Amino acid sequence: MWGSTAILLVTVVSISAFDFQQGHFTNLEQRLNDPSWSLGFSNLVGVGANNSCSAIFSCADCNTAKVCRPSTNGSLSIVKAIPCPSTAPYCQYSTGTCGTVPDDSCGHVDNFICLADGRFPDANCSAYHVCDGLTPHKFECKIKGQTYNADNQRCEASNTCSTFNCDGTGKKVANSIYPSYFAYCTNNTQLPLVIDRCTGINQLNSTSQLCEPICTEEGVLQDIEDCTKYYKCSYLWIDDTTKFMTRQRLDCPTNTGFDPSNFICVSLTQIPTCKASAPKMKVQELLKL
Fold this sequence. Notes:
InterPro entries: Chitin-bd_dom (IPR002557), Chitin-bd_dom_sf (IPR036508)
Number of helices: 3
GO molecular function, one term: chitin binding
Radius of gyration: 25 Å
Strand content: 35-45%
Number of strands: 22
Helix content: 10-25%
Low-confidence stretches: 1-26
Oligomer: single chain
Order of helices and strands: HHHEEEEEEEEEEEEEEEEEEEEEE
Mean pLDDT: 82
Distance between the termini: 82 Å
Pfam family, one: CBM_14
Largest sheet: 4 strands, antiparallel
Structural class: mainly beta
């Protein structure tokens, strides 16, 4: 009796673990977790070429389903590619099964280059891309009057349209509304080669061509590269009509770190992930307004 019970318990645990993995990898809508698509505000209109496995049940192309299996390290390997039959010729990207109606994305390839997983605005403000496993999925807002809000990461009603104004070759250009996103331009008249995002609060500095904290008003900013430092933004008046915005990189006092929620330096005991670093020279920059 005890032997049977032990076997039963092991079987239940094994099935639960497989169900967890299966649920994690199976449904494209759940995996992408895109709010606009889930709410019916956007359509999936293109999927990037993908020869690898990103789900247990997925599509190799518009007319071919594929089944993959998980490994103990969380990766997936292909088991079999299944051509869809003539009675159900289209593979459904949301389920990895064959059906009679083609997906909106069927026949359209998303050529967006994923540099990281996440959501990225397109050069067309009504479109955006979701990168999952470095495979791009292109969506278009389908409700008239809505565009993609990169800050809120969803389609929303808006009177403005963001874009990347490529005005040079071999340069980075910030998004016209969401400056933490930037494009690398290869030609004045062509679409951006790639679109990327600065980390944290940083934005693209068009002059230095680097992602940096940008001072827009007086105050302090987090230094995302060193938790024991921060930036101070303040005006420097040259005369009655000319002023510069200055940005100073400053050290928090010994054994303290910067708290970005309250904009002050607090004890390192309140920031367990922050470790003290060696002192560095203070840097001051002038930005003419």
